[in-house]
Design brief:
127 residues; alpha+beta
Length: 127
C-alpha cells in the first residue's frame, strides 16, 4: 500500500505515551534509562467497529499502548531511529488490521548539553 492511500484509511491515534526505557549511544543512557514519548497513528478501517460498536472489529488502543511500552522496555537500541523502525515493524506484524503506521519517538532528556524541549524522529511504514 502506498503512502498516498493513507487518505482512504481512518486512524487510531495514540499521542504522547510516556515510557521509561534504556536507549542511547552513551553507556549511562543504557544503564540509567530515561523517558521516551511515543505517538502513533495506526492507519486502518474503523467503519465495521464503529457501525457495530464492537471492539473486536477494531484495534484495541489500550493493548497497543501496553505492547509499545513492553517493546521499548524489552529492547535496547542506540538510536531512536532504530527504536521507531523496530516498533513500526512490530506493530505491523502484530496487528493485521493495521495497513500502515506512523511512529514518532521523542527523547525529552537527550544529552545535548543545551536546553531543549525534545528531540525526535517520525517515520511512516506500510505493508
Amino acid at each position: 500500500m502506498a503512502a498516498s492511500d493513507a487518505r482512504v484509511h481512518d486512524r487510531i491515534i495514540v499521542d504522547g505515551l510516556e515510557v521509561f526505557a534504556n536507549h542511547g549511544v552513551y553507556p549511562e543512557e543504557n544503564a540509567l534509562g530515561q523517558k521516551f514519548v511515543v505517538s502513533l497513528s495506526l492507519f486502518c478501517d474503523t467503519r465495521a467497529a464503529g457501525e457495530a460498536d464492537d471492539l473486536d472489529r477494531s484495534v484495541n488502543y489500550g493493548e497497543v499502548c501496553q505492547f509499545t511500552c513492553e517493546y521499548l522496555q524489552k529492547h535496547t537500541f542506540k538510536l531512536i531511529e532504530a527504536v521507531a523502525e523496530g516498533l513500526a515493524a512490530a506493530l505491523l506484524g502484530r496487528y493485521p488490521l493495521v495497513a500502515g503506521v506512523r511512529v514518532k519517538v521523542e527523547k525529552p532528556w537527550a544529552p545535548v548539553g543545551l536546553p531543549l524541549r525534545t528531540v525526535g524522529v517520525e517515520i511512516e511504514r506500510w505493508r
